[in-house]
Amino acid sequence: MHRVVTIRIPSIIPRNAMSLVRRSLAAIALTAPALMAHANPGLLAEVKTADAAYWKAYNDCDYAALDKLTAENVEFYHDQGGVTNGRAALTDSVRKNICGRRPAVAVTRSAQEKDVQIFLLNRGPDVYGALVTGKHAFAEGPVGSRVAPVGQALYSTLWLRGADKGWTISRVISYDHKPIPNDSQAIELSAAELDRFVGSYSSGMQKSLDVKRDGGNLSVEVEGRAVTLYPKGANTFFMKERQIEVEFNAGPDGKVSGHVVRANGQPVDQGKRL
Fold first, then answer.
1. Residue 52: pLDDT band by 50, 70, 90 thresholds?
2. pTM
3. Given this model, what pLDDT does residue 39 score?
4. Backbone angles phi, psi at 231, to 5 degrees
5. Which domain covers residue 252, as residue numbers?
6. What CATH number has the domain bearing residue 89?
7. Which residues lie closer than 8 Å to 173 by C-beta, 6 or more apart?
8. For labelling, which of 35, 91, 115, 236 has a CA lying 20 to 30 Å from the CA of 6?
9. Which ranges carry the DUF4440 domain (predicted)?
10. In total, how many domains does the chain have?
11. Does 24 fall in a domain?
12. 202: closest CA among 141, 245, 240, 258?
C-alpha cells in the first residue's frame, strides 16, 4: 500500500512569501524538461556528428555536403566580413574565399574538443535545436599538409532539428578573429650585426620596403603600419603578433642580397635588395 504524504504550508507565511513559493515551484517545473533535454546523450551525439560533418565538408570543399547541412535561410555573421544570407551565398563564399586558392593553398579549420560546448534547446518536452559554441583555429598550407594554425576565433552555431529529425545550420556567428602569437624567443644581436640588414628591398608583395634598425630589433613599414622584427637567429627575424618570419639571404662575405618571408613555415614572398 502506498502512503500519500501531504505537505502543508503553514498559514502564518505572508501572502508575498506564498507567491514566491508558487513561482519557485513553477520555475522548477518549467526547467525540468530543459534539464532532461540537456542530459540527452543521444541528441547530443547527433548534434556533435552533424557539426563534425559540416566542418569536414568545409575543409574538403565538399559543396554538396555543405548544402545538405545548411538551412536555406541561413544567416552567417562575421566580425570582419559582414553578413551573408542564404544557403547559396554562404556556400559560394566558402567556394571563393576558403577554397579559392586550391590546390596551391588550402585553408582548414579545427576546434579543440575541450573548447566545444553543446546546449540543447527545447520546446516543452521536445528538442527543436542546439547551440554549439567554442573556439576554432585556421591554418593555411599546401593541400594535405599538416601545418600549425595561424589564426583563431570564437564561434556560436545554431542547429535546428527538422520534422525528419535531421539537423541543419540556421545561424552562425564567428567573431573575435585574431592571429595566433609567435612564441619564438628573441636573441641579442649587436648594432653592427643588425646594420647588415638595413636598406631598401623589393618583393612580389612589397615593391618598396625599407628596413631600419630600431634599438635591438629591425623595423619595417607595411601598409602604413610600423612592424617590429625580433632577431631569432643570425639572419632570421620574427613578428611576435603573428606566425611570420623573415630570413635574409647573406653571401659568404656577409653581404645581404635579399630575403624570404614565411607564414606558418611556408614561403609566401621573396625579395631582393635594391
1. very high
2. 0.65
3. 67
4. -70, 130
5. 191-273
6. 3.10.450.50
7. 77, 155, 156, 157
8. 35
9. 48-169
10. 2
11. no
12. 258
